Every structure is written in C-alpha cells, then in structure tokens.
Amino acid sequence: MNEGKNISRRDFLKRIGLASVALTGCGKATETTNTANNTTTVVGETKAEDMTYRINPTTGDKVSLLGFGCMRWPTGSDGEIDQEMVNKLVDYAIEHGVNYFDTSPAYCKGKSEAATGIALKRHDRSKYYIATKLSNFGEQVWSTEESLAMYENSFKELQVDYIDYMLLHGVGMGGMENLRKRYLDNGILDHLLKERKKGRIRNLGFSYHGDIEVFDYLLSQHDKYKWDFVQIQLNYVDWKHAKATNRRNTDAEYLYNELQKRGIPAVIMEPLLGGRLSKVHDHIAQSLKERDPERSIASWAFRYAGTFEGVLTVLSGMTYMEHLKDNLVSYAPLKPLTADDLEFLEKVAEEMVTYKTIPCNDCKYCMPCPYGIDIPANLLHYNKIVNAGMMPDENAGTEEYQKNRRIFLVGYDRSVPKLRQASHCIGCGICKPHCPQRIDIPRELARIDIFVEHLKRNKNKKA
Ligand code: SF4
Ligand code: SF4
Fold first, then answer.
1. CA 424 to ligand 1: nearest atom
2. Which of 1, 129, 153, 243 yields a CA-CA distance of 20 to 30 A from 388?
3. CATH code of the region 2-352
4. Tens digits of per-residue pLDDT, 100-144?
5. Structural domain boundaries of the chain?
6. What's the pTM?
C-alpha cells in the first residue's frame, strides 16, 4: 500500500493506466460546458441559507443539491491548473452553501485531486464532503497491488484521512468482464467494504456508464454490498430517449426507478447532457426563454434533475464563476418543476432528438489523436451548425444553401485548424474505444470530411 506514496506524476499516470489514454481535461478546453448558451447567464447573489439540501438516509449527511464536479478546473496559459482560481471557486461555493465536491484520480490529467485537496484543506473538514473514485481504467492497474496504491494515493492527494463518498468509477464500460477484472477478482471491492467498516470510507457507491447488465448485477447484490449511493446520468432527454442520444444507453427513468425501489440515493452526472442542454437548437432556446424569460437555458436542466426526490446532489463541472453563480440561482433554493413544466420538457426532449447532432460532450477522453485530429472540435462544429438550424440544405433555395454553405466552411476553418480537420483522419480507430458516448469517431469524421468536400465542390451551384 505504501508503494503509491512515493511515485512521480508520470509514473502515477502510467500506473493508473491513464498515461496512454486521454484524460478528462480542464479549463479552457471545456469552456462551453455548462454555459447558458443562446441566452444571458442569470447571475444573482444567493445566500447559503437558501441552498436546498437533501439528507442521505444512511449517514444523515445534509448534502447541497448543487454538487461541485472537479473535472474541469480552470487552467492558466501554461495549461496547468490555476490554483488561485480553484481556491476562489471553492471558497465562493462553500460560502454559498455548496458542500459536495466530486473528483477522481483521472480528472484534469491526474491533477484534480491535488488541486481540490489544496483548496478544501483551507476549510473546516466538517463543512464539506469529498467524493472520489477508484479510477483503475487501464489493464496495467487491475492488479490488487496497483489498485490499492491508487486508492491510498487519493488520501494523500486530497490530504484527508477519510473519504466521504467513494465510487467504483465508470462501471458498465467494458461489461461484466471489465467489472470482474477491475473490482471483483482482485478483491478490491471486498477491501473497500472493509474500509467502509473501519470508517475510512463513509459512503460506498458506483458511477454507471454503459452496459445495463452491470448495473442490474450490482443492484441485485445490494443486500450484500449495501450501496450508499449510485451515480447515474439523468437529464430531460435521457429520461426517456437515452437510446436516441447514444444507442447503448439505458433510459434514466429505468435507472432512477431501480434505485428508488431500493431506497438508494442517486447522485446525478450529466444533467446538461454533456453541455448539449445549454446549447440547444435556436428554436428550442426561444421556447424555453418564452416560458421563463428570467432563467437561463441551462437552469431548466438543473431544475429538472433536482426535482426528483431521490436525488442527493446534482454535479456540475464549473470552470468559471458565472457558471457557479448561475447554478446557485437554480438551487438556492430549488423551485421544483411543476407537472406542466415536466410535460413541456418532455415535448422539448422529443423535439431535440429529431435534430441529428453527434452525442459528443467534449470530454476529450478520445484525445490526443496520434495523427493530430482535434476530434471534439470537428464534432462540435458540426453540432453547432445543426443547433443553429444552418445546415446547408440542397433542397433549400440557392441563396439559402449558399449562405449556409459559407457559414459552415468559414466557421469550420475558424474552429478547427486545417491540419486538425477530419480530412487528416486515417481511420486507425485508436480513439474509438475511449469514447464513453460510444461514438463511432472514425465514421463520423469520415462523414464530416465527405460533407465538407461536397460543400467545397458545390461552390457555384445548387446541388
Ligand atoms: S481514427 Fe482518426 S481521429 Fe481516431 S485516432 Fe485514428 S486518426 Fe485519430
Ligand atoms: S468523441 Fe467521445 S471521447 Fe471524444 S470528446 Fe466526444 S464524447 Fe468525449
């Protein structure tokens, strides 16, 4: 166990199996996440006493409905985490009633835990809850020894002697076999259960992505494991249309109800569907604003996730102070959505799934591409045009087609440097297994490339 204590950053990344795969990036690269796009961000002063809290039935923890996701800490011009800004964000969050901070050894190129630990250490330990994960994704860290080293390292990075919420990270990716290798066969889950008994872990749960067989299996073992919480993806599109956003996902309605049946609190991730619910199609943005002109587009998604009673906290990766302030308005206090609002959002969701965007949430797990392609920038430019209702349509009038064609091509060159565009993808497929959204990246890039070439060829005519 002590092995994990004296390793270099590079060694550590190698050991946790994340040196060779893309890590969740921080700061500038994720600027778009959680922005209340298409509308003014609502910034208002809120008070700590107005924060909505939920009670954890196992430990009685009073948890703020807004949870701080620490996967997108701001970075400076050198690409390193801007600790001063992290401290400011954490201070402001705590002063305004936020008390749940969710990190992982995998976030911010392996540096999130340390930055989070530095910022939180400056506060009274009884005033906040730390959630972190056993993120042993790579095969090289599946052994008992390596996984234990990773677990112990989290205490060191976070500068704590107990962890409030510990998760098996991203179970479901890679199916049952992956679960067995990462947590069951190596005895790690048994170890974590013992750690919970000792009090070094106060709550034990898992975050779920992917294969529903794994989710069902782990819940079927609830009598044995006594899950204190489970982290799931829930938002108003995934509630009933998860397969439309990602064909292998399971509807959040099913996941939430399975937890509710067993009285297990849900921690919510992706309330904004990877930022897509803050950057909706212009037409949808207009109808959301008409319904409540005072609130941001993003706030609808946050209020939606918070309206469910069994939800303990809703995570948001907040890089900028304006994100934090906007989310505080949504939860301090929560004004739950009415039955009418829910019905309205279901109609919005039905409409949204008819817009053919690519389900990229800019997580950057697929990066870096060894051939230099900026994968998310390519996919996001395409989505931006779809959402703006500006896809060049050959069936539209010539003028309209030519206008949108120019917008697409000029915007593409501005958003993605030439050498990083889809045309340079060789289709090697290295990136594909890293995408939690299961996007067939080489296929989508080839599609974009063909589309761009087609637009370039059709310069002076309506096709
Ligand atoms: S398939 Fe394309 S984008 Fe993916 S790693 Fe290979 S070259 Fe890069
Ligand atoms: S393509 Fe997949 S892995 Fe890459 S940024 Fe988008 S969602 Fe993340």
1. 7
2. 243
3. 3.20.20.100
4. 999 999 999 899 999 999 999 999 999 999 999 999 998 899 999
5. 2-352, 375-457
6. 0.78
